[in-house]
Amino acid sequence: MRLIPAMLFLTLTCAYAQIAIQVGGRPVGTRSTLNFTNAAGASVSGILEACSDDGSRVNCSSSYNTAFIATHDSVHDNENYCNSTSGTTAYRCQLPFKPLSSYQAGMTLLLTVDSTCASSCSLNIDSLGPVNIKQADGATDPGGAIVAGQPQWIFYDGKVFRLTGTGAAVTSAVRSAAPTDQRGDVIARRVIGAMDSITYAATMSLDVTAGDLHKIRTANTAATATVNATTGGLPGQHMWIIIANDEISPKTVAFGANFRSAGPLTGTAGKAATIQFVSDGTAWYETARTQNL
Prior knowledge:
It is a single chain. By secondary structure, this protein is mainly beta. The protein has three domains: 42-70, no CATH class; 79-177, no CATH class; 195-290, Jelly Rolls. Helices cover 9% and strands 35% of the residues. It is built from three helices and 21 strands. A seven-stranded mixed β-sheet has the order 5-7-10-11-9-8-6, with no helix packed on it. It has a six-stranded mixed β-sheet with strand order 12-14-16-20-21-18, with no helix packed on it. A four-stranded mixed β-sheet has the order 13-15-17-19, with no helix packed on it. A hairpin with a 4-residue loop joins strand 10 (152-156) and strand 11 (161-163). The longest helix is centred in the N-terminal third of the chain and has 13 residues, at 3-15. The termini are far apart.
């Protein structure tokens, strides 16, 4: 009978034995039970814990849930890639790594589509609902700025998706005349080249990098003159020269180095002339001239 109380005492002592718990060598508490919160193999924090008994001690290790925490490779691969194959301008896509839970202001995506947005369009990601796509100003429809097969960066401003890296709004007249840029042409409202003025002398040097329009005003410092181009220019480059003859006497201007002209231009006192050249990369070839203006 004396053995029963002794066994009961030992049982209660073992049942309530306290274990010192440390993390990284630092005490965090003393309890009879150590529990790792890891419900059904998942974790709301993305961290997973696993423990095993090797016969002498229990070993625990941590890992992460790749469905919750993106790896460097998955993010670097295509985490923000949105590829729409809807065949319409009501674009739809699913993010490849993890479904989007909600649209968040500031989120950035690389969008590719299979249908050009000639006027207005929208984007629906992971069935969260369609959101309008606008130009960088947040108000103007893309109007040809989104072309099928051409990637485009967009970001969500809290209300709409905006195109990034695009210029100002394109006017309706320009959109109707050339809604896409399939040939690589530049669509602009106005491009004004610089004008270079050359001092009249017997020998003049024309700097082809100073602008595409050059003007020469003749003077009595020389009766005739020769103008030379510094280089043969770039292939496809155009150049115009205005020669305004003074009112004293007619002057003759010849075209020398790097020019291929139809011959000297003989002016008329008090009149002007224009002459146009185009470059093939080695020389400037005359394409037109107009006198007595």
